[in-house]
Design goal:
Elements: H1 3-15, H2 17-25, E1 39-47, H3 55-70, E2 75-84, H4 96-105, E3 114-117, H5 120-123, H6 128-138, E4 142-145, E5 150-151, H7 157-192, E6 204-211, H8 215-219, E7 223-229, H9 231-245, H10 250-259, H11 265-268, H12 283-290, E8 298-301, E9 304-310, E10 320-326, E11 333-338, H13 346-367, E12 387-389, E13 397-401, E14 404-410, E15 427-431, H14 432-446, H15 452-468, H16 473-494, H17 503-522, H18 531-540, H19 544-550, H20 553-563, E16 565-570, E17 575-580, E18 589-592
Parallel strand pairs: 1-2, 1-3, 3-4, 12-16
Antiparallel strand pairs: 4-5, 6-7, 8-11, 9-10, 13-14, 14-15, 16-17, 17-18
Length: 593
């Protein structure tokens, strides 16, 4: 190096010696100068739901906050990403716009090198920031957050601590909002019986209930919505409860509705059942109706609740998914008084629930006692499900023969060791023709014009007898039987039986006892129908004499259904005991042939 070159280098060093040395050593010295400004930025924001917030307004004020925040430091928003209808608890990867923002990080030709948000608590929830921030840092993208007063510095422990606190505050705020909203809705249901939205139960329609009770919402044009009867569907609901209390099972009821051409709920209101196939009545549809307490006219809220479940238990960062689950009893609330027109009496609904609980306690053995959906047959069996064997009390099955129709009860189908086997003949038969003649003759005498007054008196008298009798007797007997079983199981365990072998039967006996206790505590007192109500019931049967003389199978089956006909065949004496129990508060008339 010559003298002139050494002089030039020395002059350059003397102008900025520390700058030259810092450059050689690779030291970065922080300055208070902004330089050319923060540069081009992308904006990210989020609006929770379109129903509760105006997306345009929310977008406007969040973007305005971002402009005010980065404008003084030379920041310019060139792209924006704004999620609408996304909960803050959803991870960034599962939000539409935030996932698009993360994908843009990998694009070397993107127009921005920093991201600014309008409000940090709207964008990150829980520990989400700690999972997202390193990805931005890896691609050299700065995060500008108003709560920090500038851009996020991963080397600053205060920034990390503050963002962790903000995530926790966001999560806590969301939980507090959920709790406050649920408490307010519960109070509205309990005190006002207010309909809280959602699909109206089958049998009801949602109608205008006047101005909204909240003055602000009323000023904005919001209206109160209430439930009103859908008369056609309400009659179907009443039929479902009536047939269930008469002994039919869920699938048998559904099949009858389909055979009668009654449109199922999802087909009747497709606009509110887009998620259904509308392919007819199912057993599950009937079950849902039988278990819905809103048919009593009282507002019930909280039977089903949203639950957040981990999408992947092995990867907590994947976030949660929403699932609907049946709520625990303490979460369900009921209005203090009637909130809308009732379709089913509270007493009938309670009786249906006790019946379902009793069936559930008894398992399959009890469920088999309910009439199931019969198989499609070429001919109509008039007494299917109505005639029982007098020895074993089981329903007799139809048995077609070349010379006529019979009903039989074969002993071979009895369980081995059954006490009925000792007295049961090998096969019990009764022919349909003489049975039909005897039953119709008895019914004809009951509803003949000269005897109908006597029939009404018999029905009234049977109610009095029922009212005078102990309505709790059967429930108390079931309680006693269950307790006796438990005592026997306890004695067996004390005698040395392995307790594990008795777990199932002990649990079943305990369930039966609790169901019977509930029935004993809630069984409604019988109420007697008036003369006018009984006459109205008889009038609803139509022309009984015409149905009996015409002997059209479908008309006879309908008449037997309405009368809830029950026949017990005494094989030894070749006699039948017939009982008609029309639905007048359990009134019945009996006859023997």
């Amino acid at each position: 190096m010559g003298r002139l070159e050494r002089v030039a280098v020395t002059a350059e060093i003397s102008q900025d010696p520390w700058g030259t040395l810092d450059g050689l050593l690779g030291i970065e010295v922080a300055t208070s100068e902004i330089g050319d400004g923060a540069g081009s930025m992308a904006f990210y924001g989020r609006c929770s739901t379109e129903d509760n917030q105006d997306p345009e307004t929310s977008y406007g004020w969040q973007l305005g906050n971002a402009h005010k925040f980065v404008g003084p430091v030379g920041g310019e928003v060139t792209d924006d990403y704004f999620d609408v209808g996304q909960s803050r608890s959803v991870p960034w990867e599962r939000r539409a716009e935030s996932s698009r923002l993360l994908a843009a990080l990998k694009d070397p030709n993107r127009r921005w090198n920093a991201v600014v948000v309008g409000e940090g608590t709207r964008c990150w929830f829980g520990n989400q920031f700690s999972l997202i921030a390193p990805r931005f840092e890896a691609y050299g993208v700065d995060l500008w957050i108003p709560e920090l007063g500038g851009k996020y510095d991963s080397r600053n422990p205060s920034h990390k601590m503050l963002m962790s606190v903000l995530g926790g505050m966001s999560e806590s705020e969301r939980q507090h909002v959920q709790a406050r909203v649920r408490a307010a809705m519960d109070t509205q249901v309990i005190n006002e019986g207010r309909h809280q939205g959602g699909r109206a139960p089958y049998g009801y329609v949602v109608v205008d209930g006047g101005p909204h009770p909240n003055p602000r919402k009323a000023a904005e044009g919001f209206r109160l919505r209430v439930l009103a009867l859908d008369d056609v569907a309400a009659d179907v609901v009443r039929r479902i409860f009536r047939e269930y209390l008469d002994g039919k099972g869920d699938r048998a009821i559904a099949k009858g509705l389909n055979l009668d051409g009654i449109v199922c709920p999802s087909a009747r209101r497709p606009e509110q059942n887009r998620h259904r196939r509308a392919d007819g009545w199912q057993g599950s549809t009937v079950r849902a109706i039988l278990e819905n307490p809103r048919y009593t006219g009282y507002a019930i809220f909280g039977r089903w609740t949203k639950q957040e479940m981990l999408l992947d238990p092995d990867d907590v960062s994947a976030g949660h998914v929403i699932r609907f689950r049946r709520a625990t009893p303490e979460k369900v609330v009921r209005s203090r008084g009637p909130a809308h027109p009732d379709i089913v009496l509270v007493e009938d609904f309670t009786q249906a629930q006790l019946l379902r609980r009793a069936k559930g306690a008894g398992g399959l053995r009890t469920a088999r006692k309910a009439e199931r959906a019969g198989r499609t047959t070429k001919r109509t069996y008039l007494f299917r499900g109505r005639i029982r064997c007098g020895v074993c009390k089981r329903k007799m099955e139809a048995s077609p023969r070349a010379h006529g129709m019979y009903y039989r009860c074969p002993a071979r189908t009895l369980a081995p060791g059954s006490s009925a086997l000792a007295e049961h003949p090998p096969t019990v038969y009764i022919r349909e023709d003489p049975l039909l003649e005897a039953v119709n003759a008895w019914l004809g005498r009951l509803f003949a014009r000269e005897n109908v007054d006597r029939t009404v008196r018999m029905l009234i008298e049977s109610q009095r007898e029922t009212t005078r009798s102990n309505v709790h007797e059967q429930a108390q007997k079931r309680v006693n039987d269950a307790e006796a079983k438990l005592r026997r199981f306890q004695a067996a365990i004390e005698a040395g039986i392995d307790p594990a072998a008795l777990v199932e039967v002990v649990n079943q006996a305990q369930v039966q006892r609790e169901a019977a206790r509930a029935e004993l505590a809630n069984a409604p007192a019988p109420t007697a129908a008036t003369d006018a109500e009984i006459w109205a019931m008889i009038d609803s049967l139509g022309d009984v004499a015409l149905a009996l003389t015409d002997q059209h199978p479908d008309k006879l089956v309908t008449l037997y259904d309405d009368l809830r006909l029950d026949i017990v065949y005494d094989n030894e004496n070749e006699a039948i005991d017939v009982m008609a129990s029309p639905r007048v508060n359990s009134a019945c008339v009996r006859g023997g042939t």
